[in-house]
Design goal:
Oligomer: single chain
Number of strands: 0
Largest sheet: none
């Protein structure tokens, strides 16, 4: 219970931090937002690449508690940098916070996650009933939010083609990324009898290293050619890597992850820039927050698909990678609807 409680607290902190960071960037960098968001993505990817390797070393040496303890000096440094570099103010919408909408959305996401996580063990009728409750609750939330000045989600924003397409693409793309990121270490651990924590981290580094290296180039490309085609190409390349993971032998693991990472790097900057640019400056934080919600919703779906499709022995890995490939190609299709800026 303590682990769950403090992980929820970490999630709340991230939910406050990331959307506001996106809004700060929009105000600070002018027209080169694709490059700026790509550089942030590269920094995030560098942390993601180092994290699994460091985590594997710490788990092997000191147990899983050390993976949390090591964060304390890192977060302290981030706090100092943020205090010194972030501006004290930014454009504001001047409305109250939608507490009811936030609680409602949180409950829906939690119920949806619980329903998916229990789908293999609960009766089909119960799963269907809970799914119906989630769908009905989502429709009711949209009706509640529509037209409210302090709305959490502002459903009318999704009438903008670019905003809707960017959110759809990031949700589908993150489903593919999280499905891959979580499945690879599990499969390697099962093949080695549970001793591949470090090996899984090293394998995933191939995914994130390419993303880090190519993210700045993807951002510059988005600033020069528009937001659409780098995202389309990036997710198509990621889908190709997932297909290789599904069909290839174990020797193809690293090449497939390198290909997938190339796709992530190309798509990382332009997509967030497109979502934030679709609204006025006073709603930049809102747009960034909705984009983050879409990203995390896709990640939740990908994380929950792993136990559903992978199976106890890992035999379902090809099917899981096929689903990830389909989701990545769908993200490329959604990116086609982006308007070029």
């Amino acid at each position: 219970p303590m682990l769950v409680a403090f992980r929820l607290q970490q999630a709340l902190a991230g939910a406050v931090m990331f959307p506001n960071a996106g809004a700060f960037v929009r105000a600070a960098v002018g027209e080169r937002r694709g490059t700026a968001y790509a550089l942030i993505g590269a920094a995030t990817g560098a942390g993601a690449a180092a994290g699994p390797v460091l985590g594997g070393i710490l788990v092997a040496a000191s147990g899983w508690h050390a993976t949390f303890l090591v964060n304390v000096p890192l977060v302290a440094l981030a706090l100092v940098l943020g205090w010194r570099s972030l501006p004290p103010d930014a454009p504001r919408a001047g409305v109250r916070f939608d507490v009811i909408g936030a609680a409602w959305l949180s409950a829906l996401l939690a119920l949806a996650a619980w329903t998916l996580s229990r789908a293999r063990t609960e009766a089909a009728a119960l799963t269907a009933a809970l799914g119906t409750v989630v769908a009905a609750g989502a429709l009711a939330l949209v009706r509640y939010e529509r037209g409210r000045e302090d709305a959490l989600l502002h459903p009318e924003l999704f009438r903008d083609r670019t905003f809707a397409a960017a959110n759809g693409a990031i949700a589908l793309g993150n489903l593919a990324m999280y499905g891959t990121m979580l499945a690879v270490p599990l499969v390697l651990a099962r093949e080695s009898g549970g001793s591949a924590a470090l090996g899984g981290g090293l394998a995933l580094s191939a995914l994130f290293v390419m993303s880090v290296v190519l993210a700045p180039a993807g951002g510059r490309l988005a600033d020069r050619t528009g937001r659409r085609w780098p995202s389309v190409a990036g997710y198509a390349v990621f889908g190709a890597g997932s297909l290789l993971l599904a069909a290839g032998p174990s020797a193809a693991l690293l090449p497939a992850l390198l290909i997938a990472g190339t796709g992530l790097g190309l798509s990382s900057g332009g997509l967030r820039a497109a979502a934030v640019e679709a609204v006025g400056p006073e709603r930049a934080g809102l747009a960034s927050g909705i984009f983050s919600t879409s990203r995390y919703a896709g990640g939740i779906a990908g994380a929950l698909l792993v136990p559903l499709l992978l199976g106890a022995s890992g035999d379902g890995a090809p099917l899981l990678h096929l689903v990830c490939a389909a989701s990545a190609f769908a993200a490329a299709g959604s990116s086609l609807l982006l308007e070029d800026w």
